[in-house]
Amino acid sequence: MSMHTASMHPAAVEALAERAMPVIAPAAPHILIEGVDKRFVVPGGEIVALKDIDLTINRGEFVCLLGPSGCGKSTLLNAIAGFSAPTQGTIAVEKRKVTAPGPDRGMVFQEYALFPWMSVAANIAFGLEIKGMKRAEIDARVAELLAMLKLTEFRDRFPKDLSGGMRQRVAIARVLALDSPVMLMDEPFGALDALTRRSLQDELIRIWAATGKTIVFVTHSIEESIYLADRIVVLTYRPGTIKQDIRVELPRPRDSASAAFNELKRELGALVTAEQHRFEAVEVKGLTTD
Predict the structure, then answer these.
(1) pLDDT at residue 263 is higher than 80
(2) Domain ranges of the chain
(3) 91-100 pLDDT per residue, tens
(4) Residue 235: which H helix or E strand, with range?
(5) pLDDT per position as a tens digit, 77-135
(6) Which end of the chain offers a freer environment for a tag, N or C, measured as fewer CB atoms within 10 Å?
(7) Tell me: domain 25-104+181-266, CATH 2.60.120.200, correct?
(8) Residues 6+ apart with CB under 8 A from 8
């Protein structure tokens, strides 16, 4: 301490020390959604699918979009993917405005979206070949992903020979092959039986923990959202707005039979049921956007 500071009041010395400390700026959000509306023109008028959506998703977060049919979950996911631009507002990924699909965002669909004429290994390798990677690098990456998704013994099979759960593993591996920092998942396990669904949920959590990817996951299932997510964003029935953004504080691995899990399930159930009743009341009057 200098003679000057030694003569200063302790509070003044403390203030100087605080000013001298480096200021660490908070990390920029990985996905930033600001003022997003989405409207569809239909005969006789328009459908307002999304309205006033403001959402910040940090790097490495697992966020579930939850709500009944017609709340615009898939519409919002498609906007993040760049498949369908918002009517108003902006979406940015790593500070870059989303205007089209890009390699920074990988999409997993409910319908698997595999090439039926290609083997499992060829489906996974396809994107890497398009990128122009060397054959040895492609083979190594494919072998790594086959092992990660427990597909090694199925590498030469075709999609028609696989169960629904195995096809979805291949679809996930194909997205992971491109190593996109953001994974967008549109009800990828919705068509699977309960046991296969839970197995793939566990696989996805393991992969997410190992890779640190940011995941945005659309689901109708309250239990699935609690089991998977760091945050659950509940959307209202049309127009889709954010009704509640809930952080899931339950420790992992999560026990769906625990009291805390079921307390949150009841809370979310009340929120979603109110929107489901709104959906049912107007279901026959027009098209949904999900």
Answers:
(1) yes
(2) 25-104+181-266, 114-179
(3) 999 999 999 9
(4) strand 231-235
(5) 999 999 999 999 999 999 999 999 999 999 998 877 899 999 999 999 998 998 889 99
(6) N
(7) no
(8) 16
Residues in contact with 251: Cβ distance below 8 Å, sequence separation at least 6, in sequence order: none
- What global pTM score does this model have? 0.85
Q: Return the axis-axis angle of helices 194-211 and 164-177, rounded to nearest 10°.
A: 10
Classify strands 214-219 and 182-186 as parallel, antiparallel or unpaired.
Answer: parallel
Instruction: Answer for the pair 62, 2: CB distance below 8 angstroms, yes or no.
Output: no
| Tally of CB atoms within 10 A around 275 | 22
Which contacts (CB < 8 Å, 24+ apart) does range 154-157 have? 154/120, 155/119, 155/120, 155/121, 156/119, 156/120, 156/121, 157/119, 157/120
- Helix (H) or strand (E) segment spanning residue 97: strand 96-97
Residue 173 and residue 121: Cα distance in Å, rounded?
10
* β-pair type (214-219, 242-247): unpaired
Secondary element (H or E) of residue 146: helix 135-148
pLDDT for residue 102: 92
